[in-house]
Design goal:
about 600 residues, alpha/beta, Rossmann fold, 2 domains, about 70% helix
Length: about 600
Amino acid sequence: MMVTDKHYRLARLTRNAPVFAAVVVTTIIVPQIILRAASTGSGRTEIVVSALVGAAGLAVAFLTDIWIYRLAPRRAIHQLASVYLGGGAAIVVASARFVCHTLFVVLGAGLAVSGGGALVDFSAQQRLVLVATILVLALPVLFGRTVNKSLLVAGALAGAIALGVTLLVGMVVEATGGIDAAQAIVARRDALSTGYTTGHLHPLLEACLGATFPACLLILTSERVSERPEERRVNPRSLGWLFAVFTAGPILVTMYFVVALHMPGRRLGVPSLSMALAFLGTTGQRIVAVCYIITGVVAVLGAYMQLPRLLRELAIDHVLPRKLAAADAVSPRLAIVGAAAVLAAGLSSFLTTTQAGAMVFIFAALVIAAIGALAMSARGASILKESMDRQTRNAARASRLVFFLLFLVCMAGVVAIAVADLKWLVAGVVALAVPASILVFFRRGRVRIVARLTPTDITAGRSLPTRVHGVILIGALDRASLRAVAFARALRPTTLTALTVDYDPQATRALQRDWAAASLPVSLTVLGQPQGAAVSPIVDYIRAQRALHPADIVVVYIPRIVSTGLWRRFFLSHSTPQVIKDLRLECGVVIAEVPFQLVEDDADGEELE
């Protein structure tokens, strides 16, 4: 039975590999965020108070998740917001989730760059290296490559094991004889060498906000990115086990050693890297740094992998355009992932420290939590209006009150961010406004188009065309053109004409000779064009046909050569011909592309039937 449980937990961990990677990154960087907020000394007051606030915040987030899981196990927060607060609230939640995943790209890349900084000194180019890391790690997803989740788990475990070994050795040293002054000096010197960041007016407030980062991550990860409703919410027991083992305990131990080693505040380095130098030596620190690089990289890859699935989920729930929900709508989703990579690179340039990125992440997560709490409170009020059962009404009354109080707590957190540094709030609002405004723009545009397409009279516009005129565009008498002629004849239009443009007189004469020799029962019309352009004469000819027969339609047949072979596709045009783009704007014109497929392994070039 024990083996079965282990296999079950391992399978569940592999399934949630991006979440696990995010949890490990959080465990490593939260002490860094808190210590940057502390005063230039050890900042014991800030550390102790922030640890208590972080533990309380994690407990509240966990209990809230349990309650939502029991009341609405199949609903995501943006769905609850859409039902009880309206579509605008759902758009804000969706935008906040998108921003959180994008910001985690920045935070994971920042951890990888910090680990690299412990190996090679590139402090002068650190921002450039960070931007390059963000953009390069987006390439696998943009090219349709997915990283095996087992590799993501292994990479995250590398960072978890490195941190665990560092803390374990430190606890052994502390238990056997205590940390000596030499080790404290080594850790302090290494921390001081990482650079100084300017402080703010409210170090205690900043430290407490930074300590709530794990609780905010729990809010984000309480919803699994999935298209299936029954899998939307994650079992709170799984999250509780994950955060207790890999987040709460290691962070508290790390902060204990921060105080024991008298590590300075307002420094840019990762505290556990300085601890590794004190407890494990130079070689040990380098190994830990390599593990942190791997963990940061897999966290970025995991965040990028989540984005296409998140977009499809939002499209299925009608927050994004419905066409993004199609399984084959890969290119539009990847284009949005590319935009997210550019947004992450831009945020990394504006948010110059890990603390700033974390604060914007906390702001976005608080927005999600606030809207979710308000939606659950509205849900309770809705039940009170409809239900007559006493027990149900008591439960609804309690949920309405408790979730409204949680909404006030979340809004207090937003106000605290504004008090700590107004730039963090502005950055968060701008980061949310960009995707939200795009969503609103497309939704309103789509609503207007649907309104224009809705028929006011279902009997109008149903008269049949009098005749159908066929026009075949011919460039040369090749097999693709012959196939287009055969297809056009098979459809039996009222009139059928082959059309070519005389932009090369010699080629035109050769085409006329070949056409006459082939004895095709279709007339060949040659359009002259002294300027040499090949598009406008065709469009003018089609317009003349439409003007002559306004009650008829014109079907334009265009041969299109396609191939299954890689090297042949290189020599074929993949862009849409200009004539097709122009004819799409003409009324009463139907464009029919006739494909002629070249087969890679056919020596005679026979078409695949």
